[in-house]
Design goal:
The protein is mostly beta strands. The chain has a domain of 139 residues: Glycosyl hydrolase domain, family 43 (Tachylectin-2, Chain A). Helix content is 10%, strand content 39%. It contains 4 helices and 21 strands. The strands form 5 sheets. A 5-stranded mixed β-sheet has the order 17-21-20-19-18, with no helix packed on it. The protein has a 4-stranded antiparallel β-sheet with strand order 1-2-3-4, with no helix packed on it. Strand 3 and strand 4 form a beta hairpin. The longest helix is centred in the first third of the chain and has 15 residues. It is globular and about 65 Å long. The N terminus is likely disordered. The structure holds (2R,3S,4R,5S)-2-(hydroxymethyl)piperidine-3,4,5-triol. (2R,3S,4R,5S)-2-(hydroxymethyl)piperidine-3,4,5-triol binds next to strand 5 and strand 13.
């Protein structure tokens, strides 16, 4: 009898305990449990503030594959530390041949809110099922509520039949002379120059420009931009979005042609646009890069690696994905520590961005709070 009452007491204690204790600090690289006690599954993600709530969107990763078996997940929080699992925001489908068929590659989802249409607009990198990284498309989905459900709209390559804004008559004349047959060998100085002059742009002009690693950015004037790795991941493109944030307008610019940048994350500080990227080494970490510009349209200037501390030359073992703006002057750098053999166990790096000599600096901290 005694043991029965003890069992009832134990059970009632367990039921009344919260699933996980409230956390008060950010601990990069460690397991980050959600409100159900499970490690947050929102990789390559971004964070949206809507009202007094933060929404974290990311790729759901499985035990043994990075292919999309579930879709885009969403978590909500009031303090950016304790996260409620809102479930799947955009679900992949079992419809055969659908753009987001289960088993496609769906990476780096980002969501922005359009105050005019009152819609939540999700953009992501999409690779069609069974085609590796060959499709190189972006996908767009929309929802009435931040946590979804998101309705898939379309996927495509970028800016077909359009040259970047900086290509005037002279640049077009040069691009016209480029012949791929003369540049079979990559990484030579003449090949780099030709890429800068539009070698790959020209190749993809009809079909549309490749669109892989990506982020979104909404400027103070409400204009939004899609920033993505294009031209075989050699050149970043910044494409202006239509007022409803659901399409490209056709105006775009290029950043660091032939510079081989992935994982763009962008923020604006005191009127200057800062972009942090990675190099291209698959799931393996490499040294972060940083660029700044007085306008989204450039000119973009490259700066040294902003990371400081252990493994600063490898972005602390991670790869950039997003910068959260808390307020002017207060930013959080988000990155992923990938685990390609156990993707669900990938970890998060969240670190505050400081400034030294007016340039962003990201210093490693084992544990910190706001
Ligand atoms: C690096 C990219 O940043 C990731 O999003 C992913 O596409 C991997 N490459 C795949 O190797």
């Amino acid at each position: 009898m005694k043991s029965f009452f003890f069992a009832v007491f134990l059970l009632s204690t367990l039921i009344s305990l919260p699933a996980t204790a409230q956390r008060s600090t950010i601990r990069s690289g460690e397991i980050w449990p959600d409100d159900t006690g499970v490690h947050i599954n929102a990789h390559g993600g971004g964070v949206l503030r809507y009202g007094d709530t933060w929404y974290w969107f990311g790729e759901h990763k499985s035990e043994h594959t990075s292919d999309a078996l579930v879709g885009v997940t969403c978590y909500s929080s009031k303090d950016l530390v304790n996260w409620h699992n809102c479930g799947v925001a955009l679900s992949v489908t079992d419809e055969r041949g659908h753009d987001i068929e289960r088993g496609c590659i769906l990476e780096r989802p980002k969501v922005i809110y359009n105050p005019v249409t009152k819609k939540f607009c999700m953009w992501f990198h999409l690779e069609l099922k069974g085609r590796g990284y060959g499709a190189a498309r972006y996908g767009v989905a929309v929802a009435e509520r931040p946590e979804g459900p998101y309705r898939f709209l379309y996927s495509q390559r970028a800016d077909a039949g359009t040259w970047p804004v900086e290509f005037g008559a002279q640049e077009l004349a040069v691009a016209d002379t480029l012949n791929e047959a003369n540049y079979k060998e990559w990484w030579t100085p003449s090949w780099r120059k030709a890429v800068g002059q539009g070698l790959i742009l020209k190749h993809d002009f009809g079909e549309g420009q490749m669109s892989r690693d990506m982020t979104l950015f909404v400027d103070d004037d409400g204009k939004a931009y899609h920033i993505f790795s294009s031209e075989e991941n050699l050149t970043l493109h910044i494409a202006e979005l239509t007022n409803d944030y659901l399409h490209h307008t056709g105006r775009y610019t290029r950043v660091a042609p032939a510079g081989h940048n992935e994982a763009p994350a962008i923020f604006k500080h005191n009127g200057t646009y800062w972009m942090i990227t990675s190099g291209c080494t698959g799931w393996a970490p490499n040294e972060a890069r940083m660029f700044s510009a007085p306008s989204v349209w450039g000119p973009w200037t490259q700066h040294p690696n902003p990371c400081r501390g252990p493994k600063a030359d490898l972005t602390f073992g991670g790869q950039s994905t997003f910068v959260i703006t808390l307020e002017e002057g207060k930013y959080i750098f988000m990155a992923d520590i990938w685990r390609p053999r156990h993707p669900i166990d990938a970890r998060y790096i969240w670190l505050p961005i400081g400034f030294e000599n007016n340039k962003p600096i990201i210093r490693w901290q084992d544990e910190w709070n706001f």
